[in-house]
C-alpha cells in the first residue's frame, strides 16, 4: 500500500487555488511528471468525468485515465484510476486559513501489484518528493 499526504499554504483565496488545481488542462503546468491531459468526457468537471493523462515516473512513460469520484468545488476533488498501470486514488482538499491564504493537501493512495508492490516503499518516497515539487510549483504560479 502506498499512502502519501503532502500539504502547502498558498497565499491566494481558496476559490482561486481550487479553480486552478481542479482544472485538468492546468495539470501539465504545475505537475512535474504530467506531460499531457486530455478530456475523455464533456466539460465542465463533474463526478463521472474521465481525463486521460500522459506522465513519466521513475523513468517510465505512463498513460492512465482518471475518473472523478467526488467533487465539491472549492473544497474537495477525488480522482481514481479507471484505466492505468495500477489502482491509484488522488485527493485534493482546499481549506481557507485566512482571507487570502489556502491550505492545499494532495494525497495519493494505491495498491501497486506485481513488481510494483516490491518497490512500493521506494515509490512512496519518490511520490512524496514529486508531490512536494508539484505543490511548490502551484504555489509559485499562483503567488506570482
> Based on the structure, what is the oligomeric state of the protein chains?
single chain
Q: Which fold name fills CATH's third level, the topology?
A: Alpha-D-Glucose-1,6-Bisphosphate, Chain A, domain 4
Summed up, the helix count is: 4
Largest sheet: 7 strands, antiparallel
Number of strands: 7
Q: How would you classify the helix and strand content by structural class?
A: alpha+beta
Protein name: SRPBCC family protein
Organism: Paenibacillus soyae
What does it look like?
This protein has helices at 14-21, 27-30, 115-118, 120-143; strands at 2-10, 34-39, 50-57, 60-72, 76-83, 88-98, 101-110. It is of the alpha+beta class. The chain has one domain (2-143): START domain (Alpha-D-Glucose-1,6-Bisphosphate, Chain A, domain 4). A 7-stranded antiparallel beta sheet has the order 1-7-6-5-4-3-2. Strand 4 (60-72) and strand 5 (76-83) form a beta hairpin. It is globular, with a radius of gyration of 15 Å. The relative contact order is 0.26. The mean pLDDT is 92.
In short:
With 144 residues, the protein is an alpha+beta fold. It has helices at residues 14-21, 27-30, 115-118, 120-143; strands spanning 2-10, 34-39, 50-57, 60-72, 76-83, 88-98, 101-110. The chain has one domain: START domain (Alpha-D-Glucose-1,6-Bisphosphate, Chain A, domain 4).
Protein traits:
Alpha-D-Glucose-1,6-Bisphosphate, Chain A, domain 4; 144 residues; START-like_dom_sf; seven-stranded antiparallel sheet; alpha+beta; Polyketide_cyclase/dehydratase; 4 helices; SRPBCC family protein; 28% helix
